[in-house]
Amino acid sequence: MVKQLLSESQQDYLKIVLDLINEKKVARTKEIAHRKGVSMPSVTEAMQKLSQENYVQYSAREFIELTPKGEEAALRLTSKYAFLKHFLVDVLGIQDEIADKDACKLEHHLNKSTLDRFILLYQFLTECPKSDKRTINLFKECIKAAEGDFLCDSDCKSCFISSNFPHRFGEKTIHTLLSKLNRGQKGRVIMLGPDSEIRLSLIDKGLLPGSEFHVEEIGDANRPFVVQTDGCLIELDEEAAKMIEVAIEQPE
């Protein structure tokens, strides 16, 4: 027997029905359409399909109810969404509105084993007696420092002050700034700092911690640096190149 998988849209419908039942005791087509942002005929079509698959009890012009199968699925989806939003807000410090949208996206695509690691990380950060919540509090200070909060912890702030780059040396690598490399050198991105606007622009370009790159062209105040990573050429102005800490292999 082939198990019928719910589409993302069907999953959203089940959560909406459950929310309406919990809030108003009943779920109506009109209210579902309003929350989902679709037409009533679209809701009717979706409810008919969910009814055929035994997730809801649906008849035209009547309230929509969840079957035991539908309620189980809706509760499972809702709990996954709630955990992910909680993680994004409480651990990563994401704004509530953004976290709401991102949690909804993540719940549809995260593999169960990946979700399991998110849960273990959350439990480690918040409940492990070895960390005693110090790790998550330090990370919150790191967020404040990364966002330029002048009241943040001085030790955390020092990691994001350009004069302190590079902030450490590896056993087999030398840490330096991308702006100090020569044409043809290869390296790996270690850290982005301290300007939040530059970090966001680098995220858009796809140059992230862990990215391996090759320097194609050396830039200056008048021309861009050019690096190649994953087959793509990325242009960086001088200011951005000075905010990227990289690791290169130490000479033998």
Topology:
Blueprint lengths: L7 H17 L4 H8 L3 H13 L3 E2 L7 E2 L1 H23 L5 H14 L2 H16 L6 H13 L7 H5 L14 E5 L8 E7 L3 H10 L6 E6 L7 E5 L2 E5 L1 H4 L2 E6 L3
Antiparallel strand pairs: 1-2, 3-8, 4-5, 4-8, 5-6, 6-7
Helix pairs in contact: 1-2, 1-4, 2-3, 4-5
Please explain how this structure is put together.
The strands form two sheets. The chain has a six-stranded antiparallel sheet with strand order 3-8-4-5-6-7. The chain has a two-stranded antiparallel sheet with strand order 1-2. Among the domains are: 66 residues, Winged helix-like DNA-binding domain superfamily/Winged helix DNA-binding domain (Arc Repressor Mutant, subunit A); 85 residues, Roll (SH3 type barrels). The relative contact order is 0.08. The longest helix is centred in the N-terminal third of the chain and has 23 residues. With 252 residues, it is α+β, with helices and mostly antiparallel strands. Helix 1 crosses helix 2, helix 1 packs across helix 4 and helix 4 packs across helix 5. The protein is elongated, with a radius of gyration of 25 Å. The protein is built from ten helices and eight strands.
